[in-house]
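The following block was generated as part of the benchmark described in Methods. Ligand: nicotinamide-adenine-dinucleotide.
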Amino acid sequence: MYNLDAPGPSHHLPDGSPALNGIHVNGSAHHAHATHGPLAGKKGLVVGLANAHSIAYGCAQQARAQGADLVLSCLNDKARSFVQPHADALQAPLLNCNVEQPGDLQTLVEQAVAHHGHLDFVVHSIAWAPLEELHGSVTDSTGAGFARAMQVSCHSLAELARLCAPHMRAGGSIITMSYQGASQAIGHYGLMGPVKAALESLVRYLAVELGPKGIRVHAVSPGPIPTRAASGIAEFDSLMEQAQAKSPLQRLVTLEEIGALTAFLCSAGASGMTGQTIFVDAGCHAVA
Ligand SMILES: NC(=O)c1ccc[n+]([C@@H]2O[C@H](COP(=O)([O-])OP(=O)(O)OC[C@H]3O[C@@H](n4cnc5c(N)ncnc54)[C@H](O)[C@@H]3O)[C@@H](O)[C@H]2O)c1
């Protein structure tokens, strides 16, 4: 996972169907914009689109379909060439943001607020670790590699929350993406396991600190799906096969399902919830 130079995913689901289950990947997908959905009129920022396979894209698509107005971000101009048509279809400005570049996150939030006026929800869907660290053992991880993985994949959420909270004047929602490897040691997930554990803990602390402002914070924990980041994890195909075989629903989850849960957590329907890690994994987490 998390090697930006890795080739994009070429996976199909184990049943042979295309990985994206109906989401239009190439060309200009047409997206209906609801004016009366659960997120009608809500202003959102979605961080972390690499292409139309990205979980961030699934979240953006569902939020838009439920009526939200969006600002989107991708890493750099290379990513922009893949993402721009999809941002255009969602009628959303697309900005560059590399969280390792000082000031990038601040500029992103300033530009999102300049566009929207305020923010109602933010989706943080980024993670990265140096490939040699990810493919090595956690025992042998270097302090520098671990720290970079933590900064990009975990602390950037705290920074995003700090920057966005003052603009969530009527309360808001902050959602990040975790994985079951946070709470159980899963083969080949390596140092991303401890990093995701820290992320889930961070969600609880942010929920406590921002709760008095009416800001709710969650981690969504999807089962494995083929994305560019996932293609950096060794033997990811077999991880997906095992997840499908083990899951009560006997299948993988879809981008739409991950996006729909995320959209729900940003809606008034979830107003009594904060501080949770919520699985959307076809039930895989419930089975030993
Ligand atoms: N794909 C899965 O099976 C799966 C399962 C559970 C959780 N997740 C999580 O979902 C999130 C999104 O990953 P994805 O699977 O959609 O893959 P993806 O490759 O589509 O998205 C990862 C994003 O992280 C961004 N990123 C990496 N370094 C960055 C940096 N320095 N600054 C800004 N952005 C940076 C990439 O540009 C990319 O847009 C990650 O947190 C990942 O851990 C993925």
